[in-house]
């Protein structure tokens, strides 16, 4: 009985109850949003900080600062909507090719972000995680990441994963090497190579695969991000540059996602399946 009351209460909650709309556009989008069909795991390629700055005749680093603000806003929105998992692509293995000053700035910005945001992240019961070849990051950055992960380790709310020094192919190489090591230590008969064995050795082990991948600033590519995990993800690309990716633009992406029909290689409705079954 108690369970029934709790369940009916839970499903009578509307998106606008969780997220106070700031304007009419947000209110209309929230009205269209079905809380029962939100992605479990959302992954975002935050692109366009540099172009945002360039258009304003500002240095690129001003774009990254504005990018952090946008990230804060989206993290807060996802927390309020009670998403299970959010993964943000912050620094790729390829990003080391950028000018030294920009790389140094990005590392400093990340440390600043951890310092200023961790208290609020922890208060909101978010469990923080960094994915990527973290052992190659500067020691001070690694120490801050370890502290942040330790602080939030027992939290039970949204999982927030920041991809840092991350590459999808490198992640697969690391997973295959972990499999080989297991086979050497436990003996080849103890290790079976199947999809689960690979998933279990990715940096994202234990997280559901992303249902939705958002990329800002218009480029139609996945840029070596979560290559294994996005096998069945819906992809949403917007021309909006990351620092301009407001709550309204985000809600628009979620509403668009909810219009998609996810078939995982199968057929759509019962009618289509019945027609196919008749041959
Ligand atoms: C893309 O812009 C963004 C990055 C290289 C990643 C940095 C992201 C942030 C600083 C925002 C959020 C950070 C945290 C820590 C949550 P770009 O420089 O590739 O833009 P461009 O393609 O226009 O040059």
Summarize the structure.
The chain has 279 residues and is an alpha/beta fold.
Q: Your description of this structure?
A:
The protein has 279 residues and is of the alpha/beta class. The protein has a domain at 35-167 and 209-260: 3-Layer(aba) Sandwich (Undecaprenyl pyrophosphate synthetase). Helices cover 48% and strands 13% of the residues. The protein contains 11 helices and 6 strands. It has helices spanning 2-11, 15-18, 24-32, 49-55, 60-80, 100-123, 139-152, 168-186, 195-199, 247-259, 270-278; strands at residues 41-45, 85-92, 127-131, 159-166, 212-216, 234-238. It has a 6-stranded parallel sheet, with helices on both faces. Helix 4 (49-55) packs across helix 5 (60-80) and helix 6 packs parallel to helix 7 (139-152). The longest helix is centred in the middle third of the chain and has 24 residues, at 100-123. Mean pLDDT is 92; it is low at 1-6. Bound molecules: farnesyl diphosphate. Farnesyl diphosphate binds next to helix 4, helix 5, strand 2 and helix 6.
What's the mean pLDDT score?
92
Global shape: globular
Biggest sheet character:
6 strands, parallel
Please name the fourth-level CATH homologous superfamily of the domain at 35-167 and 209-260: Decaprenyl diphosphate synthase-like
Major beta sheet, strand line-up? 3-4-2-1-5-6
Evaluate the radius of gyration: 20 Å
Distance between the termini: 47 Å
SS-based class: alpha/beta
Number of strands: 6
Beta-strand share of residues: 5-15%
Query: H/E order of the elements?
Result: HHHEHHEHEHEHHEEHH
In the CATH scheme, the class of the domain at 35-167 and 209-260 would be: Alpha Beta
